[in-house]
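Hi support team,

I submitted a single chain yesterday and got back a structure, but I'm not sure I'm reading the token output correctly. Could someone confirm the output below corresponds to the sequence I sent? I've pasted both exactly as they appear in my results page.

Thanks,
R.
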Amino acid sequence: EVQLEVSGGGSVQAGGSLRLSCAASGYTRSARCMGWFRQAAGKNREGVARIDSNGSTDYADSLRGRFTISKDNVANILYLQMDTLKPEDTAMYYCATRPLTWYSPCRLADDEFSIWGQGTQVTVSS
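Hi R., thanks for writing in. Yes, this is the structure output for that exact sequence:
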């Protein structure tokens, strides 16, 4: 029903910024639960941020103030602005969404999502 195309990853020095984009194509609606997750080498996947159908946002506690999630409801693009990057932010980043018929509360948890992008690598050097 929906495909997610992720871009914007790359290498950056500590303290720098990156903006990730996730373009949704196929059968889409602007009002849906969408999120960003990441997985560092040797670690479990963790939630980064999510935005619900009302535009309300939630973040991992450790990332508040540095990362900002937003969406362009016209273009169907989800963004993650990452500022003041640290080496520990190095990970594969994934965007995710879910079917339109899901009406659960859009928690920042991977079981709230069933449609995943392919991931983009973010590497932060010292």
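A quick pointer for reading it: DSSP finds no helices and eleven strands in the chain. Let us know if anything else looks off.

Best,
Support desk
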